[in-house]
Amino acid sequence: MSRSETMVADGRTEGLLARLRSDWLSGDRSRIARLLIAALGVITATMFCASIMTGAADASVSDVLLGVLGLNNVEQALSLRDRIIILDIRLPRAVLGLLVGASLAVSGVVMQGLFRNPLADPGLVGVSSGASLGAVLMIVLGTSVFGPLFAVFGFYTLPIAAFLGGLGTTLLLYRIATRSGQTSVATMLLAGIALGALAGAVTGVLIFMADDKQLRDLTFWGLGSLAGANWTKIMAAGPIIVLSLAVVPFLARGLNALTLGEAAAFHMGVPVQRLKNIAIVSVAAATGASVAVSGGIGFVGIVVPHVLRLIIGPDHRYLLPASALLGGTLLIFADMIARTIVPPAELPIGIITAFAGAPFFLWILLRGRTHMGL
Amino acid sequence: MISASNLIVQLSDKRVLHGVSLEARAGELTAIAGPNGSGKTTTLKAIAGETAYDGTVRINGHDITTLKPWELALKRAVLPQATVISFPFTVREIVRMGLSIGGGVGTALTDRIAQQALDAVDLTGFSGRFYQELSGGEQQRVQMARVLCQIWEPIRNGEPSFLLLDEPVSSLDIRHQLTIMRLARDFCARGGGVIAVMHDLNLSAMFADKMILMKAGRIRAAGSPQEVMTDSIMETVFGCTMRVNVTPLGTTPFILPHTAAH
């Protein structure tokens, strides 16, 4: 690069930095938010590719790619092993990581907007436990009691059961914690613990009743893992997650207004009851579908939105897409760690997110005590 | 014009409004005053469409129950008593929320209106501050700016717009009490209408065209400040014997707590 070009580039960077700085000082974070979303898009794509290229076994992605496109010549003929590793193991895993991560983070944002509090998270307030209960109910009693359901819904049965479990818990929690439009944080968290414990107890009874094969299924499922990722799971949970993710951007303005209170949101023209109904169903659907395919993966829904709010602010028009991308990226990254840290075995991803997320959650509590109505 | 007729409001099993009827005309500032628990705020909430009521409330002839929330939001804006927010919004972001109704307006215009609203409540230079870090009075003025943005045209499509203010000066210092009351006055002068729940009788008398005094869920007196601020009405409504005075150069009545008989 010549000297003058360097100067031009510097000038441009400085111009942008100066503009961002003046945006920040005047309280306008929309440009910063749009830039961050673009950057997160690139990072997510990179992480997705990196995840397909890393793993315990060597497999050449470029060969597989060429093979799929029919471009490789005879000498480089694709080994079946490579093809399976890339297309049937790593790719579905990355896709599922992206979907589940995005869904967990977005559920967190919507739930926090709905409860008007940054500590509400499906994992913390028992919604995930409710969804788990629905799923376990299906795994244990599925073939005997709910046999006909499997016949009708096929592989959608588990996500649907988890969705219903999550929906029931969310509705109950909202009923308990919100009185005439005011949500009590203490009630919400404590009721969440109680509901989670209750769901856990019922789940425990079911596990007690389970036979050996069901126990095996339950154990692998409950640890919170993307290990069982395959295209069937993606077909089962993917449409539900994608649908919820597609709906929530329409709630963004309403959720913004809701942060000022239910009455204020109504004064500002938001049909509050409808907003709440759609938000509750979306959260339950996204959480249910995620729990059904990956078990309990905690803290993504609270850490991701919190970090992003520090940078781009709480405006849901930007927070929702940014959270989806960062949630997806983080989960793919955590999964890469999970499957490479103790090869050839792998750690359940829920352990990694808890190790990173729990201390972070404590830090949020210590730092934000005054701002969160605690 | 906002007209409410025979409003009855029941909260749990206690009746708090017993048939309240009032009219608030465009171009006028209507102040509602009265002792604590007399139903002032409940009346305002019923008019805002926020509380369930029996009776009718009309804005410019439209029954508010027939209007969609966003249609209502373009005809009237409401300033609540206090607003607690658990998310780190900046002042600018809060104020601009007021402008997102009805599809919003262009960005440049949005910025200009938001800036004007902040200037109007004497918060120039506060746009980058975090709402949660402001004092109660500053937060109240930010909310006032947001409300002004929601109804930034006193007359919209030929119909007057209304501001419903619930104790708009309760946490303000005396200078900003005047700022906000003048702002409300100015909104009326430009063709809009204001209904304000007030605790300060003197500010009400100074700025209101019409004062409504409530007691125990009923209207006890309504009329110009001169008509309403009399010794006998003050005693009936507040249960406290006081002397009403008049400013030397004018007709505005005022009342000093010093005159209260023990």
Automatic annotation (TrEMBL), chain A:
Transmembrane segments in this chain: where?
A: 35-57, 91-111, 123-147, 153-174, 186-210, 230-248, 278-306, 318-341, 347-366
Under the cellular component aspect of Gene Ontology, which terms does the record hold?
plasma membrane
- Which Pfam families does the UniProt record give? FecCD
Q: Which GO terms describe its molecular function?
A: transmembrane transporter activity
Q: Which InterPro entries match?
A: ABC_BtuC-like, ABC_transptr_permease_BtuC
Q: Which UniProt keywords apply?
A: Cell membrane, Membrane, Transmembrane, Transmembrane helix, Transport
Where is the protein situated, by its record's location annotation?
Answer: Cell membrane
Could you tell me the Gene Ontology terms of the biological process aspect for this record?
siderophore-iron import into cell
Topology with respect to the bilayer:
Multi-pass membrane protein
Supply the PANTHER family for this chain.
ABC TRANSPORTER PERMEASE PROTEIN MJ0876-RELATED, FERRIC ENTEROBACTIN TRANSPORT SYSTEM PERMEASE PROTEIN
Protein family:
Belongs to the binding-protein-dependent transport system permease family. FecCD subfamily.
Name this protein carries in UniProt = Iron ABC transporter
Native organism is Pararhizobium antarcticum
From TrEMBL, chain B:
UniProt lists the family membership as follows: Belongs to the ABC transporter superfamily.
Q: What role does it play?
A: Part of the ABC transporter complex HmuTUV involved in hemin import. Responsible for energy coupling to the transport system.
Name of the featured protein: Iron ABC transporter
SUPFAM superfamilies, per the entry: P-loop containing nucleoside triphosphate hydrolases (SSF52540)
| CDD domains associated with the record | ABC_Iron-Siderophores_B12_Hemin
Q: Which GO terms describe its molecular function?
A: ATP binding; ATP hydrolysis activity
* Keyword annotations from UniProtKB, A to Z: ATP-binding, Nucleotide-binding, Translocase, Transport
InterPro entries in the cross-refs:
AAA+_ATPase, ABC_transporter-like_ATP-bd, ABC_transporter-like_CS, P-loop_NTPase
Q: What is the species listed in this Swiss-Prot or TrEMBL entry?
A: Pararhizobium antarcticum
Q: Which NCBIfam families match?
A: PRK13548.1 (NF010068)
Q: Where is the ABC transporter domain?
A: 2-241
What the entry lists under SMART domains is as follows: AAA (SM00382)
